[in-house]
Amino acid sequence: MTRYEFLLTLHIAAAIVWLGAAVCVQLLAVRASRSRDPEQMRKIADDAEWLATRLFVPASALVLVFGILLTFDAWAFDELWILVGLAAFALSFLVGIAFLSPESGRIARLIGEHGAAHSEVQARIRRLFVVSRIELVILFLVVVDMVAKPRF
């Protein structure tokens, strides 16, 4: 196995972990939403927040690191498909740091003050999952970008 193949394997494996976990969280969120059980929604939001620092952030960081190493080995940073991938990573990072993480903290505080069944808590949890669902669609489009490798 060449260095490139090794790095590509690690890059793809990290992407599978990141996207697979995100799909799983979304499926659980849909299931919880359909149950109309506020406690189940709270639990999924708590689990997603727990996974963020322990799985999503490390897996996404590995995707970035291995992608950069792959680019140094065999590609160039002026390739459209690489620029699209980097832009999507930056967008995902910004959404996480500017919205998902702070909103998770606000939801936790509201739950402490009003309980999981409070209408504002439930609305914020639903919005959190909608934003993360949109982010997931964008990340899947990056997979298409990485496979198709469009050029200028």
Main attributes?
mainly alpha
Structure description:
The protein has 152 residues and is mainly α. It is 89% helix and 0% strand. The chain contains four helices and no strands.
What's the short story on this structure?
The chain is mainly α and 152 residues long. The protein contains four helices and no strands.
Per-chain topology:
Layout: H1 3-35, H2 38-74, H3 80-114, H4 119-148
Number of structural domains: 1
Span from first to last CA?
A: 31 Å
**SSE pattern, N- to C-terminal:** HHHH
Give the proportion of residues in helices. Answer: over 70%
Largest sheet: none
- The dominant shape is elongated
C-alpha Rg, in Å? 17 Å
Structural class: mainly alpha
Strand content: under 5%
What oligomeric state is this?
Answer: single chain
Work out the number of β strands: 0
Uncertain parts: none
- Determine the mean pLDDT: 95
Structure annotation, total helices: 4
